[in-house]
Structure formats: structure tokens, C-alpha cells
């Protein structure tokens, strides 16, 4: 299948924004500042809304290029927002860049291998994998808002343990979404596999936030 150029361009935009964000030297004090939780809430609202729009777009048979363009644009904007709000240094870490490239290559190669061996193994169930991603991730955003509400209500300091890891995984989600858009351009199982992996990362992040904040919810 010949990929559409706009689809490829939007996919690469999302891939590079996530890759660059993941490869930066991240602030060590993330999670210990007053507005960090609010920043994550806004970021994940945009990202998980993209998951939901992705699912709705496929259920309603909307124009695929339009759906993927909206998703890519949304996650790129979310990445810029996260970068500006967290104060990451514009200084690349070669080991982190290498790790991100390896992660992306593994997802891409496994997806392409599924194309060759199983052919339509995941796309056969379309749009079920995308619906799972949308209906699972978007409601979980309210976990962050619930934590934020309780922290503000109790008017107490809240320190997000593992904040640097959470920030790192947030950029990784954008990177995986970009790979997913590129996979869709080539009508590949990479599309569905990448979205499902990104959803798993989102669930992990929300679980980590909830566990850290549990004392504030009692």
C-alpha cells in the first residue's frame, strides 16, 4: 500500500516530538513543584482524548488521514506544553536517545513481523484494539483530577514520587503514538500494537500516581 504523504509527515512530527522530549535531560525536581500535578493533568487529558477520538474516528469510518492528523497534532501540542511547563534542559542525553530508538525499533519490527506471519492478526479485529485504548485510558484521566482535587482541598504539600520516571514515560507515550500513526500510513499491525503499548504505559503512569497519592485520598 502506498502511504499518503500527509499521514507520513504527521506521523514523523509526533515521533520526533516524543523522541526529542524523551532524549532531553529531565528536571530532577519534577514532582516536587506546586504545578507539576496540574501540568500532568492537562497533558494526559489531551493525550487520552486523542486515544478516544482515535477510537471514535474508526468506529464512525471517518477519513483516516484526518483522524491521524488530528491525533498527531494534538500529541505534538501536548509535548510542547509539557516541555514548556516542566523546564526541561535543551540538552540531549545520548543514552536516552539510544534507548528510545531501540524501543521504537522493537515495536516497529514486531508489528511488521506480525504483518508477514499473521497478516491481519490485529487489524482483523479493527476497531476493537482502538476502542480498548480509548475507553480504558480516557476515564483514567480523572484519577489525576481526583488526586489534584483532594490535594487542593486538604491544602497540603504533595510530592509525586518517581516524577522523573513519570515525565519520561509521558514523552514515551507521544513517541509511541507517532509510531502508531506511521504504522497506520502503511496499513500495518504496527498501528494497533503501538497504540496498545502506549495505552499500557498510560495505565502504568496513572497507577503510579494513584499509589503515590493514596495517603491523600483517605
UniProtKB/TrEMBL annotation:
Residue spans crossing the bilayer: 6-27, 39-60, 66-84, 131-149, 170-186, 192-211
Key words of the record: Membrane, Transmembrane, Transmembrane helix
Superkingdom classification of source: Archaea
UniProt protein name: Uncharacterized protein
Species of origin: Archaeoglobus veneficus (strain DSM 11195 / SNP6)
The organism's taxonomic lineage, starting at the top: Archaea, Methanobacteriati, Methanobacteriota, Archaeoglobi, Archaeoglobales
